[in-house]
Amino acid sequence: MAAMQQYFAFLRAINVGSHVVKMDRLRALFEAMHLEDVSTFIASGNVIFRTATPDTRQLEQAIERHLEKGLGYEVGTFIRSWPQLEAIARSDPIAGAVQMSKGSRLYVLFMHEPAAAASRRRIIDLTSDDDGLHVEGREIYWLSRTSMRESPVSGALLEKLAGVPLTARNINTVQRLVARYAAR
User: Fold this and answer.
1) How many structural domains is the chain composed of?
2) Which pLDDT tens digit goes with each residue over 33-42?
3) pLDDT of 98 over the 60 cut
4) The last residue of a domain, from among 49, 81, 113
5) Cβ atoms 63, 30 nearer than 8 A
6) What phi and psi, each to the nearest 5 degrees, are found at residue 178?
7) So what's the pLDDT on residue 100?
8) How wide is the angle at C-alpha 93 spanned by C-alphas 92 and 98, nearest 5°?
9) Domain boundary at 59, 81, 103, which?
10) In a shared domain, residues 72 and 99
11) Which domain holds residue 137?
12) Cα angle at 169 between 177 and 4, to 5 degrees?
């Protein structure tokens, strides 16, 4: 039998617009799938759990089907293992992003699979004085030095250019998750 591993699911369309889901309901949906030690982190669709299932893409698809059935709408699910999330939290792919100026924000956009080479180039081409972009593996890193309303870059645009679904989190959320669950 495979060893239990800790995973982090980043859900799309949770507590956005009319898609309001209480965290106890979300935990119950994950527990109904026989996932263990289920917890949530802030109300934006971050679920932590343990399972012996090693195929994360298959697990993502199973969770997506289960959530759609339980909630009545499609919920993109992006899973990262503990080592993957720890590496993301420590990375500084845009030089100096860790020492950001006040008002800057670094976002991590999670994808199911890496974007194609042409898509990566189109994303990087959006880099400007206000927006720094880097694509690494299944993540897009976006350093926004202005407000999102002022930037020509958006999650929707990055998803269109990547050609694959994605969901975004502020790097602070990722780092807080890693700090909180490191002891486990």
Assistant:
1) 2
2) 999 999 999 9
3) no
4) 81
5) yes
6) -65, -45
7) 60
8) 30
9) 81
10) no
11) 91-181
12) 40
How many other CB atoms sit within 10 Å of the CB of residue 37? 12
Instruction: Using DSSP, state whether 94 is helix, strand or coil.
Output: coil
**Count of other CB atoms within 10 angstroms of residue 140:** 28
We report the CATH number of the domain holding residue 99 as 3.30.70
Among 29, 111, 27, 16, smallest CA distance to 62 is for 29
**Alpha helices (H) along the chain:** 23-31, 56-71, 82-90, 117-124, 155-162, 171-181
Residue 126, C-beta contacts closer than 8 angstroms, at least 6 positions apart: 133, 152, 153, 157, 161
Is this structure's pTM higher than 0.85? yes
For residue 86, is it within any domain? no
Residue with tokens 């195929």: 55
Q: Are residues 116 and 171 in the same domain?
A: yes
Residue 1 has pLDDT above 70, yes or no: no
The CA distances from residue 113 to 53, 136, 164, in Å, are 19, 11, 8
Task: Note whether 89 and 40 are within 8 A (CB).
Answer: no
pLDDT at position 15: 84
**Could you tell me the pLDDT band of residue 135, with boundaries at 50, 70 and 90?**
very high
Q: What is the mean pLDDT of residues 88-106?
A: 76
pLDDT at 123 exceeding the cut of 90: yes
Band of pLDDT at residue 172, cut at 50, 70 and 90: very high
Do 78 and 167 meet the contact criterion of CB atoms below 8 Å apart? yes
